[in-house]
Amino acid sequence: MKPVLSRLVPLLLAGIVLPAQTFAQGAPAPVGSATTVDPATIPPVPGWDEAITSLRTLPQRILARLPEPLRADPQIRQEVGRLALEALSSQGLDALGADGDHPVFLPTIGQVLNIGQPNADTIYRSAKITPGGTYRLRGLRGSYRLAVFAEIAPHPKQEPGKPINLGPKPETHVLSDVPVDGDGHYDVILSPARPTGYTGTWWQLGAATNQLLLRLVSSDWAHEISPTISIERLDAPATRPRPPASDLEARLRALPQAVDFIAPLLVDHVERLRAEGYVNKLKITDFAQMGGLKGQFYYEGAYDLGDDEALIVSAKAPAHCRYRSTILTNEIYETTDWVNNQSSLNDAQSAIDGDGVLRVVVSAKDPGVPNWLDTAGHRHGAIQGRWTDCDSQPTPSVEKVKLAELRQHLPAETPTITPEQRDRILRDRRAAAQQRPLW
Questions:
Q1: pTM, full prediction
Q2: How confident is residue 12, by pLDDT bands cut at 50, 70 and 90?
Q3: Cα dihedral sign for 392, 396, 397, 401?
Q4: In the listed set 229, 244, 262, which residue is the last one of a domain according to the structure?
């Protein structure tokens, strides 16, 4: 064996990738090596250059939605760059995997793909479908508080300077209400018309529906059991042939438009709340038109908070709620990292005081109370809460106090959380979050 080759074989067997220089000392280059070809002489892949050209200026287009002080802030600029990458990653997955004839539920938004203020308790997935097709869903129903499918139709063209228009209010279907067999399995058919002779669970699909958005909502992260979900088109072949070049090119060319829609969609939402006067003040909002869950109402407002200050968010708790939560976002409406910080609280994670009032404390420093929302270094952002299937939708009050005087404004029986207890709570929280399905 030649000396160079004798040195290469053990490395190749170990799976180590070698630089091109390795072959410069007498070893032959691999068959088909492109080292002798100038890439500039090879015609581009159709659609690639156009996609890259559009994406190159995406951060600037997002920044253009923000006021000058935010556009000039080096921290915000880098967070906008992250937002652009999140949008590209989310829509890139869709471009790679979406197929109405061979559908699969793909991740859309979440902690990593943090676009449009995802809820900390919700796992978001979507599947493209072909209008008019017949589909089957099956799996284990699990025990999540909510598992909801929303029908999505193509978005209308957006008009500059006008409110976001996502089209008609979407129809929803609740998996957690579907009957199951003795082993907890469900089986559902979705189609424009009930199949002849079919007597099982059936959901009617709208004529224009081309996507199913799935929300899986859990409160007790460590103990609730996630549903399992498969989707198949029944009126199409089970096998999937090699996608033609024209289809791959069309996906590539559609990617910039999809990214351009979602990346800047709500980036100025906090600024608009501020302009409306909702600073350290909350209002009730219904996001049903934008795809929010039926029966779910939101309270939200911008916050402005110094390191030595705290906000006390208080509301008389509804007597009955299927689900409730409060979360924080940053200045550009990314949800504050809820896995590594206690920046969200739901009904399983927050206690109602003895007088029936839900009190949540928002601050940068740990106030030593159970119901604490950590701003995680953000002096500005948004507070948003959800009342889902509750018998009332109160608008919480907000009181700003000095952190050192916080206990004077809380019930005397409010427990104290020690630093050691907080550390254990945060570590258990992170573990529970990671042990849920992440996508």
A1: 0.88
A2: very low
A3: positive
A4: 262
